[in-house]
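Hello K.,

You asked for the raw outputs rather than the summary table, so here they are, unedited. I folded two proteins back to back in the same session to keep the settings identical. This is the first:
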Amino acid sequence: MCMSSPAAEREGPARKRERHLLLLGLPAILLLLGLFAWPVLRLLAMSVQDGTLTQLERAATDELYVAVLFDSLQIAGLVMVICLLLAYPVALWLTRAGPLGVALGMFALLLPFWTSVLVRTYAWMVLLGRNGVVNRALRDWGLIEQPLPLLHNLGGVLIGMVHVLLPYMVFPIYAALLRIDPDLSRAAEGLGASRWSAFRRVVLPLSLAGVGAGCALVFVLALGFFITPALLGGGRVVMISMLIEQQVRELLDWPFAAALSAVLLTVTLAVYAVINRVSRSARLATP
């Protein structure tokens, strides 16, 4: 008579649990496939509907579109770095603040989500215009004589995009910091490490998973931004999403718009993979 081992007995319930969880998540998986995967596949098929790779080759090699894609990557990278520099101190403060501080901080982070991106962008146009609130205040205080060019340039676009995407960087880092046992830092300081050394060698390495997740999320979202750069850039700051919209709305060239979207999707996935690899390598290499 064959006797089952304890390991096999434990494996049986585990596999049943996995199957049950898969069945519970199956409706959501099918919904995501229907709403996201199928449209993406149709988009990719549209880019080669003539049976050739002409549209994809044009999208990937034309100097104009390559330059705009490179500029979009630079802008997304700048937004990611600025959000990281601003978000990490905020997330660290939230983990050490009292209940009132955490409540106020979360309220400030969640408040922008209650207003659409379009309304927030128009608000920044009111604030940053030549006769906007900021320039009028600076003139009234005697700090400037001529209005500062805060709108229709890269600076204005960065301000608006960082404002929208900052919470997406704060929350992953905050979640990673919450999982770190505070006793680890206390133990490091008790063994003679300074507060900065304890943060650099204990807290920072353990929070790199949240940093990587936040960087990937912010970069991917920034790369596909349309409303904010279109309004705050005033046509002087062009991103790849704006060219895709132009191909669809003005030129009615759906195949080429699909080809540009396919190139953007490929670049986004490649950069996402690089960010994840760098984040993983940094976590492993940090002492």
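The second followed immediately with the same parameters:
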Amino acid sequence: MSLKPIDPESALNLYLTDRENEVSQATIYSHRSRLGHFLRWCDDQGITNLNNISGRDLHYFRLWRRDEGNLKPVTEKTQIDTLRVFIRWLESIDGVEQDLHTRVLSPVLGDSENVRTVMLDENRAKAILKHLYKFEYASRPHVVLTLLWHTMMRVGAAHALDLGDYDPKDQSLRVVHRPETGTPIKNKEAGQRFIALSDDVCTILNDWIETKRVNAVEESGRQPLLATPEGRAHTTTLRGDCYRGTRPCEIGIECPHSRSPETCAATKYDEASKCPSSRSPHAIRRGGITYALNQGWPKPAVSDRANVSEGVLEKHYDQRTEQEKMEQRRQYLSNL
């Protein structure tokens, strides 16, 4: 096989362009970020042609990235697994030797290491939503955190919602995959669904639409539900709402990390994620799923509402303790 010279940056750009029609935009962003470390390493090593990359080089990169990034095992595995996918793609365009991807050795994790457990728990969620209801009623952050907690949807799905996707009479939201106008969702058509809403959530949405929402219209004619003066709220904006809204100091709770609000960097508008107690949209979603399970929702119902398979739900989202699971099973004793 005759390899065709290709530099790391060109290879990454071609790879991401090739995958744009296969995966969500969020996945593209993630792969660009993870593989950006590989480009930095290539630059440090003076590697300008990936034809010359060997299995030993890839091992050296893995060790470099582990030390340089001080990575947890699960993070290291995620980044190395993405590198393997990239190397395999390079094989398809004659950029590296065939089967090189088989020499990308990914860490083997134990069951407990492969599960993320950070979530927004029930008590904090209720306190945050109560605070928002009282002091920031029907604001964008109030709507965003309410939707993510109660519907268990991903931030990408919230970003994709249009005004017309909300049906106040039917009390429901429609999640739709619209890649042609810039709002793909995870799982594409398989992620499309209707989500029932409670009276309280509908009241907040109705008031948001009537009193706070900006009347934004995109070039495609679409009207985003979560609109800003600049148009559809970007996922970065929605994540910021989550990080800012979940800081303890935001709702008047004393800082559990002994920081002073006057000097803490996390109190700045764009630095909220630096607070150890702030929570990402995914942690809010995980908390909402766990809360629903604790309330006795059947797993198939949670699976359909959150658009996650029951197997993934069991492994990655169900954060109930074994004792909590036992107490829920207790209700069935009378049937024995």
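Residues 25-45 form the longest helix (21 residues).

Happy to rerun anything if the numbers look odd on your end.

Regards,
P.
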